[in-house]
Every structure is written in C-alpha cells, then in structure tokens.
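Re-run with default settings, no changes from the original entry. Doing this only to confirm the output is reproducible before filing.
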Amino acid sequence: MIALLLLGPVAFFGVFALDLGPGSSPTSEARVVYAALCLPWLALAVRMLRIGVVLGEEGVAIRNVLRTRRLRWDEIERFEMGHWGGFPTGVARLRAGSWVRASALNPPAELQPWQNPLILRLLDGLNAELERARAAGLAGPPREPESALPRAPEAGPPSTVEPF
C-alpha cells in the first residue's frame, strides 16, 4: 500500500517530464529535472515492493527497504518480536548478540494490538525452518540466553519483550 502511495510523486513529475500536462510545454532542461525527480520515488517504491524474508538452503536473506542482509543459518539464534524506533517488528536475533530487523515482519496497523496473529505465525514458521536447518546440521544448537538477550514470550502478545 505504501509503495503505491510512493508512485504518486512519480505520476505527478512524470506528467511534466513526458510533456503530458496542459498548457505550454516545459523546456528540455525542465523535463530532465522532472524526470530526475521521479527516479528516487520510483526506486523507493520498487525497493518497498521487494521487502521480504527469503529462505534458502544456506540461510536467509532479509530484504528491507534500503538494505539486504544475508545470514547463514548458523549465525541465527532465533526469530522473535522486538522493537525498532518504538514500534514492534520481527527480528532475527543473532548468536553474536545483535539483531537484524525485518521490515516484512512488521505487524499490521490495528485498533486493538495483536488481534491479527499473522506475524506471530510467520515467526513460528521461520523458527521451524531454523530448527530444520539445525536438524540437518546447517546450524548449531541454540545456546542458553544471557540476561542481556531477553526471550520472546511463549504465549500472548509479544509486546512484553523488552526493548532493545
């Protein structure tokens, strides 16, 4: 949805760049400027449409809007809910103690939080894939959490996870 909103400026500036607007035609230089103003909006919309968590034999690729992180199965401790910028989001907790945010695992905007369990089911599925990778010897066993690494709750809304 947001990606479609980003296409609004592309259409607006594109009308002038392609000389589709009413009235007198813009100069060639102005048309180049309008076309240049379209490009960042178009790139951002395309990148937003590409966000996701892609599973592979050797690990996962977490595609966010501006950056893609590729993680081997043995680097990942677990997938869980965390907080980023004051908002809940799905994260890959790494064995090194850090985490990687996954924009594709942001919960939908709801009037009553956690009524839609879709993200929790997705996190469970990712953790199941991680367990399969461990069983196949592609990832080491989970380690015991340290006090600095809070675990996601087993049941209920994940809003009780401590902020990072």
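Helices lie at 2-17, 28-49, 118-135. The radius of gyration is 21 Å.
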